[in-house]
Design goal:
92 residues; mainly alpha; 76% helix; 0% strand
Length: 92
């Protein structure tokens, strides 16, 4: 695989991991969020070592699919947490 292809695959994985890491503050508000937060250090370490890992297109496709599924599964719990946060400011 040439350097450009490798850079493209690395960028795609980095994008997936950074998208998940960007959710850290939101996940901290979930009841089981603390379980996920512990895994963030693993993601951060992996992201920092991306340049030392051989990457295949099939690996990237699996990570992109897993990221998409993860985000889809979080959509409802995060929306409920946001709704609870907003309700605190509603005057009845």
């Amino acid at each position: 695989m040439n350097g450009q292809d490798t850079e493209n695959l690395s960028a795609r994985i980095s994008n997936c991991l950074q998208t998940i890491l960007d959710l850290e503050p939101d996940l901290e508000r979930l009841r089981l969020g603390h379980v996920l937060i512990r895994e963030f250090q693993i993601l951060k370490t992996f992201l920092a070592r991306m340049d030392r890992i051989d990457i295949e297109e099939s690996d990237v496709a699996r990570i992109e699919t897993a990221t998409e599924n993860f985000l889809r599964e979080l959509k409802t719990p995060l929306a409920l947490v946001e709704l609870e946060r907003i309700r605190k400011y509603i005057v009845h």
